[in-house]
Each structure stands twice: as structure tokens, then as C-alpha cells.
Amino acid sequence: MPAETFGDPASDPRLQPTAPTRGERACLDSYLEHYRSTVELKLAGLDAEQLARRSVPPSTLSLLGLLRHLAKVEHVWNVVMIQGRPEPKLYGCDEVRDADFDGAVDDDAVVVEAWASWRREVAAAREHLATVSLDHVVHVHGEPTEVRDIVVHLIEEYARHAGHIDLLRECVDGAIGQ
User: Fold this and answer.
1) What is the pLDDT of residues 11-49, one digit of tens each?
2) Is 27 among the domain residues?
């Protein structure tokens, strides 16, 4: 295995043979899970300082900020939008626009909480989305929106941020994506 990759490509769980997807739901679920796994793989093994390191000051973009942001994204789309529960956004993002990034500091407790939050929100979203039809319509900012559109948006959100994570991780320790 080249030292600069995240792990041994032969044991990468995203590259293991799987049954071909059948139908729209399986296809969308497969892509969303692929990108969730990609984020987890690319952030694994870093300490609090590495995760909290800012990209290019004055930007607050960091690996830890992206993890917290993705936890917030999962929460907002699953709980607030699809389930319609008027809960506050994670990390106080209702009050402070970029609180998910601003609060991503070099502290082991913040890292532990971020991983726990992301894993909790992903698990809750998996469980709930499995029970909801892709045709189900919810209202997003007053507009009728099918759940399938939200799932596609989640895939887009993860794919975009996985690219950011690639670049940030390379700056932190030289590891490149696979």
C-alpha cells in the first residue's frame, strides 16, 4: 500500500463486490452510503489538532467543521424537513450562521462529540428514510418537495464535501484519496 493513501485499496469497504442495485431506492441508498463511508474513511485516524486545523485563514473550513456540518445536514434534512419536527439546528446554527465550523476547535471532547453526533444523525436518518416513500412530499421553504429530491441533495452534499475533505486531508498529512 502506498504510504500516501488512506488505506489498503484491497480492504476498502467501498470497493468490495456487492450485488448490483435494483431500482431507484437501492441506487440512491447505495450512493448515499458510499459517500457516508468515504467521509468516515477519510477522517479516520486523525487527532483533534489535525481535524481542527483551518484550511486557509480567515476561512473556518476544517475537517472537524465538515464532520459537524454533515451531522447538521443529516439532522436538518431528516428531522426538520422530512419529519417536520421543529427542532433547533445542531451546534447553535440557528443563532450563528457557521457555528458548526466556528466551534470546530482542537479539543478531544469536541471531536468525540462530533463523531457521536454524526453517527447518531446518520443512524436516525437511515432508520427513518427506510420507512418513507421517495414519492412522499414535504414542504421545504414553502415548496412541495419529494423525499427523493432530498436524498439526491444529501448525495450531492456528501460528494461535494468529500472533495473538500480530500484536499484538506492532503494538507494535513499528505494522504491522498483513493
Assistant:
1) 666 555 566 668 999 999 999 999 999 999 999 999 999
2) no
